[in-house]
Amino acid sequence: MNGQAERPEAEDITAADATTDEAQDGATDPVADAAAVTDVAELQAQVAENWQKYLRAAAELENVRKRAARDVENAHKYALERFAGELLAVRDSLEMGLAAGEDADVESLRQGKEATLKLLASVMERFGVEAIDPLGEPFDPALHEAMTMQPSHDLEPGSVLTVFQKGYALNGRLLRPARVVVAAAPDQENG
Predict the structure, then answer these.
(1) Rounded CA gap, 151 and 185, in Å?
(2) From CA 12, how far away is CA 26, in angstroms rounded?
(3) pLDDT tens digits for the chain (191 residues)?
(4) What is the Cα 113 distance to its own chain's centre?
(5) What is the three-state SS of the chain?
């Protein structure tokens, strides 16, 4: 009988284990539910924080755009401010020369004009404006404008014989080409 008595107990234990497993599968675990709720709350908090970061970044980007637009506008508006300030000294010199011109002799007028021209040249040099005076140099169509050609025994053909008007470049960029007369080969019949 001992064998039979043990057997029902073994069946009871197996049936109880099966019931417990079924109960666990069908019911929710309160600890797991609390963890899931906590995860959702953490995710919602993180979403809210990221949204606030996005809004701050978008506002900062808009402020940078406005600041850059204002800086560009001011750069266009006041780009020549320093240059114009330097030119005021040249204007003052010209005005003083005109005022003194009524009682001045020719030599003092000439000296005044030369001083004013030097002042203007120094202002232009400080701002990267350089004169192009190609007398005697080879003709360069990128920097010179040929007004005419003239036969010459003194210079090689294709060289600048005379400069009608100097050219100017700003930081290496051509503002105005030099207007020149280009030397041509002397006529064979005349030479």
Answers:
(1) 5
(2) 21
(3) 454 545 555 455 554 454 455 445 555 676 667 677 788 889 999 999 999 999 999 999 999 999 999 999 988 888 888 888 989 999 998 898 888 877 888 888 889 899 999 999 999 999 999 999 999 999 999 999 999 999 999 899 999 999 999 999 999 999 999 999 999 988 744 44
(4) 40
(5) CHHHHHHHHHHHHHHHHHHHHHHHHHCCCHHHHHHHHHHHHHHHHHHHHHHHHHHHHHHHHHHHHHHHHHHHHHHHHHCCHHHHHHHHHHHHHHHHHHHHCCCCCHHHHHHHHHHHHHHHHHHHHHCCEEEECCCCCECCCCCEEEEEEEECCCCCCCEEEEEEECEEEECCEEEECEEEEEEECCCCCCC
- Tokens, residue 36: 């899931």
Which runs of consecutive H residues, i.e. helices, occur in 79-170? 81-100, 106-126
pTM: 0.58
User: Which tokens is 154 given?
Assistant: 């003194």
Residue 159 DSSP class: B
Domains of the chain, earliest start first? 128-191 (2.30.22.10)
Q: How far is CA 139 from the centre of its chain?
A: 35
Angle at 96 between CA 170 and CA 132, to 5 degrees: 20
SS3 label, residue 82: helix
Tokens of 11: 């069946």
